[in-house]
Structure formats: C-alpha cells, structure tokens
Amino acid sequence: MKTSRDWGLQIRMTIVMILLATLTIGFGAFIGLYFQNLIFTVIFVVGMSFVQLIYGHKLALKAFGAKVVSAEEYPELHSTTVRLAQQADMPTPTIAVADTKITNAFATGRSTSTATICVTTSLMEVLTQEELEAVIAHELAHIKNRDMIVMTAAGAIAAIVSMIIRWGFVFRSRGQNATPIIVAMLVAVVTYFVSFLLMRALSRYREYSADRGAVSITGDPMALASALKTISNSMDSVPKKDLRDAEGINAFMISPIKSSHLSRLISTHPTTEKRVEKLQEITKELNKK
Hints:
Layout: H1 7-34, H2 38-63, E1 66-68, H3 75-87, E2 94-98, E3 105-108, E4 116-120, H4 121-126, H5 129-145, H6 148-173, H7 178-218, H8 221-234, H9 240-246, H10 261-265, H11 272-288
Parallel strand pairs: 2-4
Antiparallel strand pairs: 1-2, 3-4
C-alpha cells in the first residue's frame, strides 16, 4: 500500500528549515562580530552543525542505550518491519533495540538511507502484535516524511547553544571579562528559545501526520490508539531516573516522557487523548467507505 505525501507537512518543514538556517546564521554572525572573530565563529558554528547532522542520529541511539540488532537476534521484529516497509513502498530501515523498562519507540537519521527505528524491550513485551505493528508503521511514516532532518537540525542549534553556555561559565570562573560572556550566553538562550518555538509549531502537526501515515500502512487506526494509551499509562511504573535519562530524545519518541510538570507544559507532542480522538475520527471515516 502506497502512502500519499503530506504536502501540508512538507511546506511546514521547508518553512521551519529556512527559519532555523536563518536563525543559526544570524546567531553565528552576531557572536562572531561581537567577539571580533567572525572566521572562528563561522567555522565553529558550521562545524558543530555538520557534526550534529552527520552523527546526531547515532548519538540519540547511544543516549538511549540502543543497539542495532540483526534478523537472527530478533527475527519477528525484523520480518514485521520489512513487511510494513514494503507496504509503505520504502526501504527497510536499520533496526535497533534498547533494553529498558521505558515502553517507547523512535526513529532517527538524517535521511531514509541512514534511518533507524528503535524499539524498547518493554514495548515488545507489553504490546500486542497489532499494536506493535501500528507503532512501527508510525515510525516508518516519520522516516518517509523525512521530518527527522528538522529535529536533527534543531538538535544542532541546541548543541551549539549548550556548548556556548558551558564555555561561558568556564570563562567566567577563570576571571575573564564578564560582560561579553554574559551577552553571548543571553543571546544563546534567546536563540534556543526561538528555535524551540519554531519546533513546537511544527512538531505536533508532524505527530498527527505520522499517525495518519501509520493508518495508511496498517489500515488499523484503533490498534495505534490502543498502543498510545498503553505507552502513556506505562510511564507511571518507570523509575524517575530512567525517565530523566531518556528525556533528551523526547522529541523523537512516539509518546513523550513526562518526568516533570515543566515537561508536560512544553511537550512537543499532542496529548494522547487528542491523538486518540483523531484516530477515532479516522475509524469513522473508514467505516463509511
């Protein structure tokens, strides 16, 4: 079954990418001119962005403790993913598994050729086969939409900002002139906040789009709805430390980790209830046909 391209998502992604690129260039130019070393700043910003884009997906897997697995290790998981990828008319991504009590899954990679789908051991234990297929189809939809590249780009800005803030504290502790360092740190924080708002404007739409894409692959919206409920409810039984350790890749996950009141407030995902409502609407539309 071929999935149709979500042009609404593609247009939003293009606009956000242009704005993120403009923001990064403006941020780098300001810092460079302010410290009167534009060449070094350009090299630093471009270099950090390049490293994040090339290796960001590997860092996400490493942060979650995920390992790429073979078909011999997880034959059913591989055969399911291969079949769903064929139904979606796309290449089969690399498959990784994270041995954790967190019930979740995510896709990462800068392109379809470098894409990886990661599922947790807990996810495979608690979901039915139909629910697991729905989750994998959701991640395949993310890959086919190529929307991980935007998340990776946003991650590059976050990495640059984080490094500048850390360096700022180091330089201040060594007795360096505080004024330019404080200004740089403030500009870095503002840059990160603006990039976050841009991602917030896109990320909720991309989750709805991936949900629709999953349904177009499996034809079973209620299996995904059931999986989302199970994943959301399972968070209460996961140790808080495990949740905090994995919160850095929240934006990539099918259901966000909510270890604090603040994370709930600034979540990049729609609520599970709203996603389930959308899937119920899709079910009604399918039943009419």
